[in-house]
Structures are given as C-alpha cells and as structure tokens.
Q: What sequence folds into this?
C-alpha cells in the first residue's frame, strides 16, 4: 500500500519523473500479479489464492491511475481532463473495494485495507464531481455546476468521516501493513479536508451567484448523467517491449534458483491440475452412474412397486388401513379446517338463518306492496267522488306520488329472487358435493379416513381365497433353500435392489476417499529433489499411478452396477408376467384410483363449502 503515501507527497517533493517511474512500477507490479493469477491455478499458499492475487492486481492498477491523475494535476491540466482521470480512479477503487472486502472478512488481507480503499474511493468521487462542476461552470451551465458541487460535497463528507477513523490506536494493531504510517494518513486527511473546504467554498459561491445573477434551474442530483472516465493504467507486459532473447538480459536470472526454482512451482501447479482432472473425470463418471441407476429404478417405480407385492405376503385384517389409511396433507388440512369452522358455526345453522331472513324479508316487501295498493285504491276512490270540488283541482293521484316506493319494492323483490336463485344453485351444489361428506368432515381427518376405508372394503388387496392356490400353481420343487413363485421373485428383486443401494454408497465413499487422498497428496519434496524440469512428466506419471486403486474400484463398481441393473430389470419383467402379480397390480391400482377419487371429492366438497 505504498500508494497511500504517494498522493500525500505529490504536491511537495515529488517531481514528474518520480511520478512517471511510480506509474510504470505499479503497471509492472500489476502485470506480475496478473501472471501469477493465470499460471497458479492451484496456489500453494494463502497469499497466492486467486482472489487475493486478483485484488492485489487491481490495487496496483488503481494506484497507477492515481499516478496519472497526480501528474495531470501537477501539469495543471484542464478540469475536464482531471475529472475523467479521477472518475476512472474512483471506478477502479470501487472494483477494488468489492474484491477486497470479502477477502478481508475471511482474514486473508488486513481489515484496514478496506477502510483505506473506501476512503480513496470517496475522495476520488468527490474530486471527479468537483472538477466536472468547475468545467460546467466555465461553460455557463450554472445549475448543473451547483448540482455537481452538491454531489461532490456529499462524497467529500463521506471521505472526511472515513479518514477520521484512522486513529493512533488503529496503528497499534495488525490491521494494516507496516508500510503505512500515521504521517501518511495525516497527509491523506489533509488532502481530504482541503478538497472538502474547496468544494464547500465553490458551492457557496455558485449558489450565491446563481441566486443573484443567473437564476439557472438546478437539476436533481439523481438526474445527472454519469461522468466520462479516461483509463490510462494497463498491465505492462514486458514481452511487448523485448524479444525473448533480450528478456533474460533485462530481467536477469531467476531469484529463487538456490531456494525453490520457478520450474518446481510450476510443476507443482501442473501436478495439482492433473489431480484435479482425475477427480473431475471420476466424479463425472460417478454422477453419470448415479443418474443411470436413478433412471432405471424410476422406470420400474422402485421401491414403491415392490411394496404392493410385499404387502400381499404380509396382508392381514388391517392391511387396507396400513396401506391406504393415511390421507394426503392437503386433505387432512382441509378436513381440520372444516371441522374447526363447523364447531364455531355450522353450515346447517347458517343455511337455516339465511332462509329465515329471506322469508321475513319477503313478507315485509309483500306487506309494503299491500299498503301501497290500499293507499292507491283509497286515493282513486276519493278522487272520483270529489273530482268536482275546487279543492281537488290540483290533487295528484297516489299512484304518481308512490311510484318511487313501488320501484324500490319491485327492485328489492327482484334482488331477493336473484339471491334465491343463486342460493338454490349453491344449495344444489351443496346437496350433491358437500352434503355426502359433511358428516365425515365434522370429525376431521379421522371421519374422512373412516369413509375412505368403508369405500375400500370392496377392493381386496390382501390374500384372497385363491391366492394360496395361485402360489401353489407357480411353485416348482427345487429345494426349500431357494424361494420360488411370487414370494421368491419379490425376495430376489429386493436383494438386488439392496445391493444396488449398497453399491451406490460404496461408490460415493470411494470417491470421497479419492478426493481426500488427492487433497493430502503433496509431492513438493519429490519435486525439489528432481534434477531438472525435463524429468517432471515421468515423475508425474509415476506419482499419478497412486490413484489407480481408487479408479479401478470405481470402474468395478460401475461394471457391477450395469450387471445388477440388467438382472433386476429381467427379474422385474418376469415378476410382472406372473398371473398373480397381474392380479395384485390390478387390485392395487383400483384401490389407489379409488383413494385418489375420494380425496378429490373431499377437496372439491371443501372448496364448495367455503364458497
């Protein structure tokens, strides 16, 4: 994190040549980290993990972008140029922040790096908006300039808050590297404070001038377009500048020749990749074998299809209850809901109450109609008797005055008739759908189970009177130790099925052993003793033979599975061809169908009940 102190010195004793050298050094450092990330797919230590190296790569490039920005400031470049460079620095530090934060949380990097990176992110965001606002102000876009200054002020305030968290006690811990000192952070704090002061001063001046002179509308900050960015920091690839024969003269000899040569590190990485290839290949084969086994068992509906035949052998008086006496969750919940509702207010009582209200309302409407008719007759009689009297010259008939009330009575009668028709429709559904099940639903799921078992009594799925005879017809006298007929076929299939499950478990455990063996397999010492890099491939071949035992065990398991799958398929086909098996299947499917139909009726009854 040497770049933390870099920007604090830029305004004092650093010249353009120093900035240029730092810029190139950061680019070269980024390129070397990039090289490590691409060539060490299986790093030997935590600091060479891919996420850590990529984060360091991004940090180097971000600091190189800082150097370009500092140089532009020292050269007094235009505000537009400085804004673009600062915006790119902010974007880079935003990416760095997202990459470093999870690494710091897992303790692979010092936690303090996150705070420093976020401080720089806010600082460069404020700087980019500040210089863009100055550029807009020079163009006469005073309202936009004020909005930019306001946004810069927000970012500067955040940066000031973050840099204030660097206290003396912060440096007494191991949160940061030893290359970051309090004086560096003090310089960074001074820069943040100075930028915040400049932003506030410019914002106040811009607001005052706009209020008095320009009166330019100030747009909402959220509507401002994104700033343009100019990236100048790329990886420095030495191969782009020097030929392969010149590269050795420039770079020099390998630094670690007397320790562990780079070829050994590369060999260790290659060996790790070879182990990974073996693991991936064997894991793919295991997953494929598991999928094929699952497909084969699903096609035969194992183990559910065996259950009906095994039930046939142990069937007793309670056989139906044991197999079909359990309702689905939806039916149980629906039955309990109706039971609870009926306890609070039964549907029968509600229907009686509604019917009583309908009768009362009908009588009241009829009574109103009779009153209006009587009033009309009286009015017409009086009008005919006293029509010649002067006082009755302006007399209006009752029928005209009471027309509104007659319309209201007729309208309410029509609504009542419509409601009665709807109630009759609902009552019809109730009588056909709900009524048959309502007594059972009063008792919840237990009542539904009782009705279900009552309906299933005519389906014989246990030992019928002819089942023993059918078994006898299929028995062949080949010895008592070998079961035959339906019972023997089912037992054979069950044994093969159990063997397949055991084989699957053994295959998975063997794969786990292979992974553990590969994880603990370290040939670093053997690689160090290797005389040269040319013999590494032969060494790899010898070392990889250690995995042959696990691979052969997995291959044997796959071959045995193929044999067992073929055998269980043949046995299951022969089982289904037995007359007794066909009879059991037919009765079982009839029971399942009847249970499904009854559960459907219950759900429909509950749905109509709630409507």
A:
């Amino acid at each position: 994190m040497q770049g933390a102190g870099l920007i604090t010195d830029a305004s004092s004793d650093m010249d353009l040549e120093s900035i240029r050298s730092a810029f190139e050094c950061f680019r070269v450092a980024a390129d070397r980290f990039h090289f490590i990330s691409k060539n060490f797919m299986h790093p030997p230590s935590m600091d060479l993990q891919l996420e850590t190296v990529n984060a360091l790569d991004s940090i180097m490039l971000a600091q190189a972008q800082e150097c370009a920005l500092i140089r532009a400031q020292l050269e007094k470049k235009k505000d537009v140029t400085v804004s673009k460079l600062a915006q790119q620095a902010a974007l880079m530090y935003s990416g760095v922040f997202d990459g470093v934060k999870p690494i710091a949380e897992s303790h692979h990097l010092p936690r303090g790096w996150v705070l420093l990176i976020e401080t720089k992110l806010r600082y460069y965001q404020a700087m980019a908006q500040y210089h863009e606002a100055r550029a807009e102000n020079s163009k006469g876009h005073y309202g936009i300039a004020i909005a930019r200054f306001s946004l810069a002020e927000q970012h500067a305030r955040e940066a000031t808050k973050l840099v204030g968290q660097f206290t003396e006690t912060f440096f007494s811990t191991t949160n940061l590297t030893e290359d970051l000192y309090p004086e560096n952070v003090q310089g960074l704090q001074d820069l943040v404070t100075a930028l915040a002061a400049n932003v506030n001063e410019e914002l106040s001046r811009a607001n005052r001038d706009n209020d008095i002179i320009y009166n330019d509308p100030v747009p909402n900050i959220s509507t401002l377009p994104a700033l343009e960015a100019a990236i100048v920091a790329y990886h420095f690839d030495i191969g782009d500048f020097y030929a392969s024969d010149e590269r050795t003269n420039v770079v020099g000899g390998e630094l670690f020749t007397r320790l562990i040569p780079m070829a050994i590190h590369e060999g260790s990485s290659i060996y790790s990749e070879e182990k990974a290839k073996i693991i991936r290949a064997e894991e793919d084969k295991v997953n494929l074998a598991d999928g094929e086994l699952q497909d084969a068992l699903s096609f035969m509906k194992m183990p559910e299809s065996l259950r009906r035949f095994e039930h046939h052998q142990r069937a007793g008086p309670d056989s139906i209850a044991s197999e079909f006496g359990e309702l689905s969750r939806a039916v149980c919940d629906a039955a309990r809901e109706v039971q609870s509702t009926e306890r609070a207010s039964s549907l029968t009582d509600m229907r009686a109450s509604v019917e009583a209200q309908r009768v009362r309302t009908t009588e009241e409407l009829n009574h109103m109609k009779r009153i209006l008719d009587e009033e009309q007759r009286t009015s017409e009689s009086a009008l005919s008797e006293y029509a010649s009297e002067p006082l009755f010259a302006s007399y209006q008939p009752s029928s005209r005055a009471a027309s509104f009330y007659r319309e209201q009575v007729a309208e309410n009668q029509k609504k009542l008739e419509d409601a009665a028709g709807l109630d009759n429709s609902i009552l019809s559904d109730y009588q056909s759908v709900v009524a048959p099940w309502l007594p059972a639903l009063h008792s919840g799921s237990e009542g539904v189970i009782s009705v279900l078992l009552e309906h299933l009594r005519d389906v014989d799925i246990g030992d019928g009177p002819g089942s023993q005879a059918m078994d006898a017809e299929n028995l062949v006298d080949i010895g008592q130790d070998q079961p035959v007929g339906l019972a023997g076929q089912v037992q054979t299939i069950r044994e093969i099925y159990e063997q397949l499950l055991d084989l699957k478990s053994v295959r998975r455990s063997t794969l786990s052993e292979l992974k553990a063996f590969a994880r603990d397999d370290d040939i670093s010492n053997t690689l160090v003793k290797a005389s040269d890099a040319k013999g590494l491939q032969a060494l790899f071949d010898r070392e990889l033979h250690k995995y042959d035992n696990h691979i052969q065990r997995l291959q044997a398991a796959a071959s045995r599975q193929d044999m067992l799958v073929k055998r269980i398929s043949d046995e299951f086909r022969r089982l289904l061809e037995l007359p007794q098996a066909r009879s059991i299947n037919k009765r079982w499917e009839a029971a399942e169908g009847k249970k499904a139909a009854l559960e459907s009726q219950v759900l429909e009854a509950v749905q109509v009940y709630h409507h």
Q: What stands out?
A: The longest helix spans residues 347-385. Confidence is low (pLDDT under 50) at residues 1-12, 174-178, 461-483. The CA atoms of residues 37 and 535 lie 26 Å apart.
